[in-house]
Every structure is written in C-alpha cells, then in structure tokens.
Recover the amino acids of this structure.
C-alpha cells in the first residue's frame, strides 16, 4: 500500500502514490521475467572432470609434472578426444592457468573428451623433455581411452604457442612415439595455434637464437635447433596426420606457419595455414571457445572432417 506523507493531499498525493505503484509493479515484472527466463533455459550438459591423472611414471619424474585433467561429456562413449598442450615459452604455465576459460566447455559441448596436460618445464628440464612428456601423454590416453569414454582411434592434438610447437613436433618426428611402441598415425589431426618456433634454424642468427628460447634450447647448438624444428623433420614416408595451423597477424608466426604447411603439402601430407582475424597471440588462446569466437569452430570442423575420412 502507498503511504501519503507530509502535507501532500488531493491530486498531487494521488499521482505520487500511483507512480510508486507503477514502479513497484515494473520491478516485480522484471523479477518474474528473469525467473521465467532462467528456469526456461535447457539444463547444461553434465561434464565429469577427473583431475590430476598421472599419465607417466618413471624414475626421477615429479608426478606433478606429468598430470592431466580430463573433461568428459555426459554419456560419452567412443567419443573423439583432444589433448591440449598449453603455452608459456616452455618455461611456465600449467593445465589450468595457461588455458582459456572456455576451452574445456566448448569442446565437451561438441562431444569431445578434452584433456589438458602438464609437462616438464625449462630451464630445469630442457628440450626434449617436453616432447617426451607429450608422447607419454598420447601413449597413456591412447591405451586408456575407453576408461574416459573415448575412442583410441579418434585422438587429436591441440596446442597454443609453445604447446603448438610440441604438438607439431611429436606428430612429425616419429622417434618420440616410437619410444612407446606407437606410430604417428595414432594421431587423427593436429590443430596448432600461433607458434613462431616451427623452424628454429631460421629463427637463429649469428650463431645464436633469441634469448627468449635459451631456457628451453641450447643457444649456440644448431643440431639442437634442427632437432626441435618440425619443418625440417617432415618426411614423405612418415604417416603424418593432417594439420590446421592457425596464426594471428604478428611478426614471425605467419611466415613459420605457412612454411610448415607448404613443407607438409610438398611431401604429400594434408595441411592448411589459416589467419584468425581480430585476435592477438594471447586472445587467440584466452577467447578460444567463447561466444562469437571463430577459431574453435574452425578446429571442430577440421577435426570432424578427419573423422569423416
């Protein structure tokens, strides 16, 4: 009920009271609309999260370095899976703080089991420790895929920055998976996001590589640069999976992505280098899978094309 206070009487008091009622009714209507909207939305699909799965055990390994979080869509059975390798210049980051907040949800909504992995970091662990861990994770989840509702024959790799370099190298150089009794053809496809390190031999100048790379790679050892350069290791006879190389408009990365794509195609493999507009190196990862993002749908479309082959 509206109260008349002070000396207000007559028409003025009536208008004041009427306006208060109208405001109150408007607020109640908005609250009711919000209530109806929330409860009319379809329930979000349940996602089971299994954290800190240890994917490799070996003498001297810190279990914290070789753990992964697994995000499983509701009712997953023989689902495709994607192993994500985070960026951070091979020196920092982990399976949670170096990933965009939308990635796991986006890919599980699309029916993928999403696996975010840790790996050993430089400078305590220099190259090729990171590649060895990538291969160990692939071998583990290939063997244990059914336990997580996934199909071992539908395994994809994804990585950002340093992680993109790792994903590319482990899919191109067969030695890493060979150590686990596997071939590179266990990988159905690779989505590599904006690395500038696909060819360190072209990055190095005057007998050195940029300081940025020193913690992970020997600064003056050209043999190490070559061994860490996916572009230089492409072989026609190696069963290399299809590649989608996404890059943004920045220095070095576009040229290195295009060079790798052309090298792969020149050796008879499938590859495409594609520009992602209106994204920086950081936001490509941070916004991956967010509303309006164009990169994540590109990746899912690419993955599904490989499943259809």
């Amino acid at each position: 009920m509206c109260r008349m206070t002070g000396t207000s009487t007559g028409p003025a008091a009536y208008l004041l009271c009427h306006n208060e009622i109208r405001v109150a009714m408007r607020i109640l209507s908005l609250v009711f609309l919000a209530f109806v909207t929330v409860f009319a939305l379809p329930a979000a699909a349940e996602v089971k999260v299994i954290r800190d799965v240890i994917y490799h055990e070996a003498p001297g390994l810190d279990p914290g370095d070789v753990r992964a979080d697994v995000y499983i869509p509701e009712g997953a059975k023989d689902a495709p899976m994607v192993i994500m390798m985070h960026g951070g210049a091979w020196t920092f980051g982990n399976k949670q703080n170096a990933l965009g907040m939308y990635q796991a949800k986006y890919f599980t909504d699309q029916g993928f089991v999403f696996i975010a992995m840790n790996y050993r970091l430089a400078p305590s662990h220099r190259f090729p420790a990171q590649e060895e861990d990538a291969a160990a994770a692939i071998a583990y989840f290939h063997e244990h895929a059914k336990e997580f509702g996934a199909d071992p024959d539908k395994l994809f790799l994804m990585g950002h920055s340093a992680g993109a370099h790792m994903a590319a190298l482990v899919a191109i150089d067969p030695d890493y998976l060979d150590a686990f009794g596997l071939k590179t053809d266990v990988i159905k496809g690779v989505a590599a996001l904006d690395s500038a390190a696909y060819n360190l031999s072209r990055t190095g100048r005057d007998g050195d590589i940029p300081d940025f790379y020193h913690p992970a790679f020997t600064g003056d050892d050209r043999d190490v640069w070559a061994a860490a350069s996916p572009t230089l290791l492409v072989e026609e006879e190696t069963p290399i999976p299809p590649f989608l190389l996404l890059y943004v408009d920045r220095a070095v990365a576009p040229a290195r992505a295009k060079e790798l794509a052309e090298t792969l195609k020149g050796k008879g493999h499938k590859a495409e280098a594609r520009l992602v507009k209106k994204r920086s190196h950081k936001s490509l990862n941070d916004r991956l899978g967010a509303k309006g993002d164009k990169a994540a749908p590109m990746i899912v479309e690419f993955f599904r094309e490989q499943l259809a082959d």
Observations:
- The first strand starts at residue 47 and ends at 54.
- The two ends are 70 Å apart (CA to CA).
